[in-house]
Write a structure and sequence with these properties.
Length: 307
């Protein structure tokens, strides 16, 4: 399998016998049909799960006279370190002529010092006797008013900008509407710290980001020595291995209220998410269009239409 594209980025075209695709991710591969004409298995199987699920299809040459036979090839099981090493081989193709996240070539991500670091740790606490999932001890709950409406119309009592810390704390886990404040055109380092013995997958709406580092154990400032500051991949969803961390750089050039969440539905639904408020106090159509005049208003925003 020749890898040629990952979530909109052209990559170095490495060859793989098997390839890990984590929850929420997408990619393109090319397969050259240069084998003897017959039928071949194509197998997709889960990894890092207690029960291994397998889906099988058949690649059929039009002049094949030989059906598939024998057992279905077994997929690789566990091998977290092997998977992490494979992830490091996925690199940006710097010779590609496709558009970049900065198509004007105005900057290179590896030459910019991030304005600050946000360290996000996932967890699986019991809150009020029920299973929840959390980010820095905050298990997200949806407000009755959409955050974008509350922010646009300055509606109080919907969210606060101190609802979640930018690093883990020793506070007891609790429910809240978690919103992280940030400024338009900030350049952030975000570290996903996974202290659980589970595979994680994180997605950020509204952005691509550079996945600059993976590592085992606990992230420290010394971990930056292992970052890829040359040809790291840009994508919108990244994996975080058990008892490990993943670091990304992101240029906040898209104003708005953006969801940062687990790509795993059960964890997202039960609170492993937060919002990143990318804000500029000066209103400008160059940064963000106005909300349409016919937009549906609900929650506390409904009072603006029916005072």
């Amino acid at each position: 399998m020749k890898l040629v594209e990952v979530e909109g980025s052209h990559v170095i075209q490495n060859l793989y016998d098997s390839f890990d695709v984590h929850v929420g991710q997408s990619l393109s591969i090319l397969v050259t049909l240069d084998q003897s004409p017959k039928d071949y298995y194509i197998v997709a199987s889960t990894r890092f799960t207690t029960t291994v699920l397998t889906s099988t299809s058949v690649l059929h040459y039009t002049n094949s006279q030989t059906p598939v036979s024998g057992p279905v090839p077994a997929g690789p099981v566990n091998q977290f370190q092997w998977s992490l090493m494979q992830a490091r081989t996925i690199r940006w193709n710097l010779t590609s002529n496709a558009a970049r996240p900065n198509p004007q070539g105005s900057f290179h991500y590896g030459k910019i010092t991030p304005s600050r670091t946000i360290l996000l740790a996932n967890s699986a606490p019991l809150i009020n006797g029920k299973q929840r999932y959390a980010v820095n001890g905050i298990s997200y709950i949806h407000p009755d008013t959409p955050l974008k409406l509350a922010d646009h119309f300055n509606i109080p009592g919907v969210f606060t900008l101190d609802s979640i810390r930018s690093a883990p704390t020793a506070d007891s886990p609790h429910l809240a509407t978690a919103v992280l404040p940030s400024s338009l055109h900030e350049f952030l380092e975000i570290v996903f710290q996974n202290n659980e013995d589970t595979m994680q997958s994180w997605h950020l709406d509204g952005y691509d980001f550079w996945v600059v580092g993976f590592g085992s154990g606990t992230w420290t400032q010394a971990s930056r020595k292992g970052y890829n500051l040359v040809d790291a991949l840009t994508r919108h969803t990244t994996q975080v291995y058990p008892k490990s961390w993943t670091a990304i750089f992101v240029s906040l050039d898209n104003q708005g209220m953006w969801n940062l969440r687990s790509a795993m539905w059960d964890r997202q639904y039960l609170g492993q998410q937060a919002y990143l408020r990318v804000y500029n106090p000066t209103s400008s159509l160059a940064n963000e269009y106005d909300i349409p005049t016919n937009a549906l208003l609900c929650g506390k925003a409904d009072a603006l239409r029916h005072p």
